[in-house]
């Protein structure tokens, strides 16, 4: 019982020492079950060539690509105990199961079990705890057998009771046998014991690693080394004393000068075998859990599988941290290295940091703004006054008011100025503190223009330019600068850069022109308009961004280094950022929960080689399916309402992963959780570019991924071809219709022309006929009139002859003459000629007349024809060889035959009706 109590006291003492001892730590990123959404235990970790992490988790295979976590469970839901990345395959081991995962052409993880390849062997409740590659084969180790996978065949190499480790050493496969030590597996699959290893007998070998051709062998409480001939306890006694309590579990040789040990009880032990320096990473200084189950390395980073979570430790980071998780220290405002000790000014007090231990100075409680070394003395500007720090004592210098700053007066030995909450005080040569009564407002910042003239910044009301009198007992000159180039100077900052007064006001830099006694634009600092100067020392300047809190280190000549706020884990004290120079390569940054050490040489090397990580496209899917990554996807328009891209960015030092989409639409943004989605893209070809974004801007290498959103069905190629055909058909139809119209129009024109031509011909013919008719009428009228005149003359002659016939001696001759005259008057030939000419003019007259009045005689027809010609009875009489009276009688008889009304004119009737 006493021994147990003594052991517990030792453990308690060691625990107290560990918790009180603090060291600068590299950045540690912890991932909890809430981050990766799987079980807490992670038995093994491995990384592929691109830096993607794979972890053997209780719920399946975990994957992390720098952007998002994925879990791939086995169908059996069994615990995965081991994982090993080899080429494109991720081999895993589980309970009575082993195989490999591989991404298909669509980026989806597919599992292939290798157990069905085993022949003539039955598992004996085995779990696969380790996987290694050796001579183009993959070996799987359980506690009961070793399995070899090669050429798509699996064979049981050897069975038995095996220990915790299998590795390749001296180009041979080395195995641990439970409590028997280490053995080589020869080509005949027989075991050969490692030489001179009696010291390992009876111990359980937890892990084995190779360093400089030697073997490092870990048991639970000790570390051994095999130098090629014999095994011996490792030479560092202090290291082995740590292992007696911490319990070794795994070893990782990160380099010849850096070995990482994973323990069961105390997290990670980092060991330098050259300097024998030991560092611990555990729950007290960054890790979530003290039980280390697996370790892997990639590009200077250590990935740790924990009993509760996963951790990433960046051993090569140019920034290391002292973080006070207790909250006691608070926000650090300033640091000073004095007499081999670090002093810290924070919002909770002033501390001394010595031998990796933090201790508050007695009486130093309260907010401290500034630490300053003047003439070998260390001063603190405190909320309650100004103090000198003597070793670990807090000695008051001036306690009338809190102070912001203390600085020496140029060219005046042993005279210093204190900027206080109520004005300015002077520490004289004899140490007396004199309050300057001419100033009764708070001064937060002071910059000397020369030994007597200085600029003072009010916390709220702007800038003042002041001048001391000769004995520094008062102010000779005070000028309040309300505005700078018509802009109010609220919260302006004043500095001295290369003996030039510089002022930052409303994101613009100005300088004071002594000759003109005026402020003018400081064009040389235009590139830093959005940055505030926080440190200047030996020609090197530190600026901090006003919005993003990025840090810039520059000499204004050739060098400009940028540290993203992400690199400092967004821990800077906003609006009170501070950088403290230690030497040419080491600087310290005050943080809101501690401080950070910045190795500027490492920053240079890292930024010169920062273009390494390349984004990885893991998958593309729309509303319906996932697409192959081997060719540019063609996404149907109806499925393109949401198109999602899954992307990883492993082992990147970029501040963010950004994208730019170029095509019909141009979209840019930042990738969140490894996924970016686009909605309702217009159809067309696109190029999606992924790239890292650093404070320097966009950098390569970038990943370019082309894809195409197909047009909707009504704009598809087949439909466009159909539209072309329809358009051509429409053109042909229009052409054909136009041809028909043109033909029809031509026919109409021809018909019209023909009609017009025919009409013209008809008119001409009609005119000719009319002319002929007119001519014939004239001829007929003339002939008729001639005949009438002739007959009239003959009738007159006949009348004269009849009147004087008694005078003629030869009556017979007279009678014969009269008969000839009668015959001449009634000449049928003349009638025939008249009838012919009349018929030509009035073709159907006689036929129509006879048709209507068939009882008409030839004499009636003659009379009708003469009446038709509108001849008078007097003109008709000689033609018919009768008297006018006889014509009238004949007309009367004709009316009777035609049964005409007495009122109707016979001439009009014949002309109108016939």
TrEMBL record:
Q: Which domain of life is it from?
A: Bacteria
| Single GO term (MF) | DNA binding
SMART domains from the entry?
Answer: HTH_LUXR
Q: Where are the transmembrane segments?
A: 713-737
Where does the record locate the signal sequence feature?
1-21
Alphabetized UniProt keyword annotations: Membrane, Signal, Transmembrane, Transmembrane helix
Domain (HTH luxR-type) spans: 853-910
Record GO biological process: regulation of DNA-templated transcription
The protein in question is named Regulatory protein LuxR
